[in-house]
Amino acid sequence: MLSRIGLSIRRWRRRLSRSEWITRLLGLSTSPHSPHAPGLVLIQIDGLAHPELLKALARGRMPFLKRLIRKEHYRLEHMYPGVPSTTPAVQAELFYGVRQAVPAFGFLVHETQKLGRMYDPEVAALVEKRIKSQHRDPLLRGGSCYLSLFKAGTKTGEAHFCPADQGWGPALREASPMAIAILIVTNIWSLVRTTALILIELVLSLVDCVRGIIAGQNLLKELMFIPTRVAITILTRELCTMGVKVDITRGLPIIYINLLGYDEQSHRRGPKSAFAHWVLKGIDSAIAKIWKAAHSSERRHYDVWIFSDHGQEQTVAYEEVNGRNLGDALSEALSSLPSAPQIKSTSIPKKVRFERARLFGSEWMDKRSIEQESEKEGDKAPTAIAALGPIAMLYNIDLNGSSRADAAKKMVEQAKVPLVLYLEDPGSPASSPVHGWWKDGPIKLPEDGRMLMGDEHPYPIEAAEDMANLCRHPDSGDFMIYGWCAGMRQPMTFAMENGSHGGSGPNETHAFALMPEDIQPPDPSRGYWRPQDLRSTARAYLRGARPMRVDAHRMPKTVLRIMTYNVHSCRGLDGKLSPQRIARVIARYRPDVVALQELDVMRKRTGGLDQAERLARLLAMDLHFQPTINMKEERYGDAILTHLPARLIKKGILPGPPGGKGGLFNPAADEPRGAIWVEIETNGEPIQIINTHLGLSRAERLRQVDALLGPEWLSNPRCTGERVLLGDFNALPNSAECKRMGGYLRDAQEQAPRHTPKGTFLKVRIDHIFLSAGLNVKKVRVPRTSLTRQASDHLPLIVDIDLTTKGGK
């Protein structure tokens, strides 16, 4: 009854949903799959390093992410993005499984011999075409993306604010005036809120602009930064958040969004600045809205994964340190070569990074520098330098007989760059070492990688290997110039910015992944994720085939974790039928033994699935099932799952109501009730586990309790050692049934130290775990999370038993 009322309320909410109205008015397609089909939302916080996230959490900048960690069983993991630590490289690895698809954000394209950047539509399209030629299956097939450099398999119209697609633009232009009017009216609050946020951000931008000018910043650059700050931190965030919510309503299988605000502000003021950390509040709020929409979806069962593509280093501009730009410094340093190259200073962007503003049609902001970078000197490949961050690449240098080692040495000693890498022979095999020069003289990679990266680098070996491989990229320069290496007080960048990424620094290569606890990396022993790991895990999750294994503890162990859980035939309060969701609840708490009630096996009403077998397979646990109802091939009953050594002792039906009187209005009152008894072994000692589900009437329950306490069950000569009786008793703690049980066993919730007993069904206690006197309760949990509140009409009850001590009477 309560479930039906809840479902009716959800249906009416769906009919009144703004996202649903947008979907209908714009004629957007919806998913044809069943509501329990898996879906995935990937949220990328651009540029936020793992250490900076920890600071933001400690300072209260991201309260919703902290809630996910504390209450929703998310786990904060390390992630290594690779070198180059740039968005296009990470997206290519995430979407296609291709590492180092580009050498940097800006580079000389070898097909055209023109300098290009990844926000140029033709450059992004060219790189994606190369990747597709490797026959890689794109991750976002059938889904959508927001602020991505690649379409990654999305259909036309599903890539939003991206170089190669216009998103919903055509749908909006083709909509009727009446449809547009209805959209405006139904979303008026969102429009008012966004307008207010834009105005507030505009005021803050003007204040910050004045402060920058007083501090000596360039007036023109400060003024030009205002529109990009407002557009990226507010406008794109709000529009993309709204779009993701609509796509969740549509039931798209996978949705990707890149939240850019922090990265953009960090480039301007630095990743550690209060200026950049302030933006994280808005990002946290956007994630909360997306997460809530995902967990309220009617068309799919969504999971939300949050990660960053890279971090940033607090940098100082090369030009500020040396008083001249890199092009002039390199020209002077190499002037003694027989064929001295002249490197144009115009080939290095001097302006603030305005590439992202071009997503809004603001090409005029950077038009002059784009034109300069695209020049070619006749038919000859131009001597050029690409430098949009802490990596600069020098192309087409004619050394005229001079060695590359001499040229690299001059760059380090005279141009004062920290590190130069090069190949002695561009055609050398991949196994040959990469040579270089730094402050302490010549080096080789990868063997000198740890020395070059330093002891404090989180991934010294991996970064050194990536730097070596990067020298062999077809778009890499003859010389790779890095703004950071071990021993530097502050990293340098070759652009005019205070925060930078793209190189191999310890912060820019230290990203994070915030994942649900039951989502394990492909290689847990490694201790960190890579974008390719996210890809493979996401693909397995969407296939619904990845086991959520409950890890077995190494023997001996000191804690035995037991769970009882009425799973309501795996049908949640949202009406979705999902054994996978029940398995996720169990996996998050990693019980050694779990007692389940109300399982359907091969029943038509739940799709003919063997729920008991499915859960056991997903969790990699052994199964013991007791049917209480047998109707030809259909069965219904209770089960015990465990990964510990176990043997079935007994299973059977308990007495029914006195005189066979069932319920007059409730068919469940006529339902047979049973019990299943399994003996487990832990630390060489046997423990008896009995799982049951008692009837609905008081008289029936009293008869069943007497049977359980009698010679067939708990008083059976084989029921030796410590004993646990658990399950759904349909009885309150003060009932005669529980009091009778309490004369023989102890209520775990009443024995736990510093624990207030909590309800498991509508806030009342009808699920119980009773223990014999020799078992000491260490901890009790009744998790009330978004997942547990939706997965079943009951909450799980979890008890940790301390095996190192004996309980008192």
What does this structure look like?
α20 crosses α21. The chain folds into three domains: 212 residues, Alkaline Phosphatase, subunit A (3-Layer(aba) Sandwich); 181 residues, no CATH class; 246 residues, Deoxyribonuclease I, Chain A (4-Layer Sandwich), CATH 3.60.10. The protein has 25 helices and 31 strands. Helices cover 34% and strands 21% of the residues. It starts with a helix and ends in a 7-residue tail after the last strand. With 809 residues, it is of the alpha+beta class. The strands form seven sheets. It has a seven-stranded mixed sheet with strand order 2-19-8-1-7-5-6, sandwiched between helices. A six-stranded antiparallel sheet has the order 11-12-16-13-14-15. It is elongated, with a radius of gyration of 31 Å.
Predict the CATH topology of the largest domain.
Deoxyribonuclease I, Chain A
The structural domain count equals 3
CATH level-four homologous superfamily name of the largest domain: Endonuclease/exonuclease/phosphatase
CATH class of the largest domain: Alpha Beta
Q: How many distinct beta strands?
A: 31
- Helix coverage percent of residues? 25-40%
* Low-pLDDT windows of residues: 345-379
| Biggest β-sheet description | 7 strands, mixed
Strand order of the largest sheet: 2-19-8-1-7-5-6
Computed Rg: 31 Å
CATH architecture of the largest domain: 4-Layer Sandwich
- Taken as a percent bin, the fraction of beta residues is 15-25%
> What structural class results from the helix and strand content?
alpha+beta
